[in-house]
Amino acid sequence: xxxxxxxxxxxxxxxxxxxxxxxxxxxxxxxxxxxxxxxxxxxxxxxxxxxxxxxxxxxxxxxxxxxxxxxxxxxxxxxxxxxxxxxxxxxxxxxxxxxxxxxxxxxxxxxxxxxxxxxxxxxxxxxxxxxxxxxxxxxxxxxxxxxxxxxxxxxxxxxxxxxxxxxxxxxxxxxxxxxxxxxxxxxxxxxxxxxxxxxxxxxxxxxxxxxxxxxxxxxxxx
Amino acid sequence: xxxxxxxxxxxxxxxxxxxxxxxxxxxxxxxxxxxxxxxxxxxxxxxxxxxxxxxxxxxxxxxxxxxxxxxxxxxxxxxxxxxxxxxxxxxxxxxxxxxxxxxxxxxxxxxxxxxxxxxxxxxxxxxxxxxxxxxxxxxxxxxxxxxxxxxxxxxxxxxxxxxxxxxxxxxxxxxxxxxxxxxxxxxxxxxxxxxxxxxxxxxxxxxxxxxxxxxxxxxxxxxxxxxxxxxxxxxxxxxxxxxxxxxxxxxxxxxxxxxxxxxxxxxxxxxxxxxxxxxxxxxxxxxxxxxxxxxxx
Lengths: 222, 297
Prior knowledge:
Chain A is mostly helical and about 220 residues long. Chain A has a single domain (about 1-215), classed as MetI-like (MetI-like fold, Orthogonal Bundle), CATH 1.10.3720.10. Chain A is about 80% helix and about 0% strand. Chain A has 9 helices and no strands. The N and C termini of chain A lie far apart (about 55 Å). Chain B contains 11 helices and no strands. In chain B, α9 packs antiparallel against α11. Chain B has about 300 residues and is mainly α. Chains A and B meet through α2, α3, α4, α5 and α6 of A and α1, α2, α6, α9 and α10 of B.
């Protein structure tokens, strides 16, 4: 218990980094996932194929490889830089890698949502003369989003837990690294581990409840 | 019914013109991206034969890549077996009629599902030496972490699978005089296994992918030998190494995913079970959605 109290400020700072990563990746992956799903259902075979290849490749690659590649490959070898400060550079590299990874799962969740929209909706949209992009934006996606709030919640929870893998992307400030660092210092400490687990649960459980509640509230009545 | 045809049908002349425009614009964008990557690679001399050469030598494969792949597969295979056992035990315990079995099992499953896997692996990795004395516990930490996390997810799959068997099945079984464990063993489980097979295989893809977390605690897996050791031996081959081992990971996982899809189709047709295949964990898509999707991780 003493260890937990002694290292609490460092652990808290580390956990806040996880929260920051989660917020950035949450927004970026939802945007990227929506673009991807629009490609995957588009009337253009080229875009459909590109979307499918992206999802299948990214979804089947370990996140550790994605993040390690963004740090060692994109940044060190190919010279991609977001910032001159190494710590904020690796922060954005992790955001990039984790968003690219999570977007594939967002895309798949949304696609299963599109499958729940009755055919009549799209037919009616076409009948009143909407183009593909209009019917997607005005008719299909709003209903698809409401159908997959709960699965998207699961994707976001997985993403929040995945922020701990940031260590593989060379971002050495978040809580998994801080925990490892303290363990290196003082040996294993059960209270520190449990404290971090509770901190993560304090974020993921409300996300689960909130998305579950929203899913019920916003369900499309048919 | 593919999702694509929901949004459009045979296009008229104007829609055809618009689609042609989308195609050209999309193609241009993709070519631009690929060309950009090509140019950037070229600038940093990533197309030089020298750095790709090692992957044509059999030695590279036998001393680096294959042993790493073996490490990955060993960890994945052992963790898969243990996770299945863990999942079966805790999944059935959660269905128990006795609250003193059901509630603790539920707590264990929910807690291990909520812990970020890397934290769990770190914790086991650092806990093991202080409990069991010195030694290399990387393998054990990876396998134990994967087992506890994926086992908990599989416990939910098992529970959902048993609950997916229509009530009439167990009622009929009780009516002909079977006992509780006979109903479970002879009627519910055989049908549930067929229904949960695709979800189990999808979760095994997640497990196989997550073995790569071992890289962080220096377990000798494919990512470690291929992405840390190999580029250190053949200086400059980092990007080719990432591409080669990426292809191996994607190939392995896509083969497993294909197996899941095939199993799902088979179990949808199957007359051996009254239960419909259950959705993989986390991908519990809205009702009415077709296709099984993949487990979320």
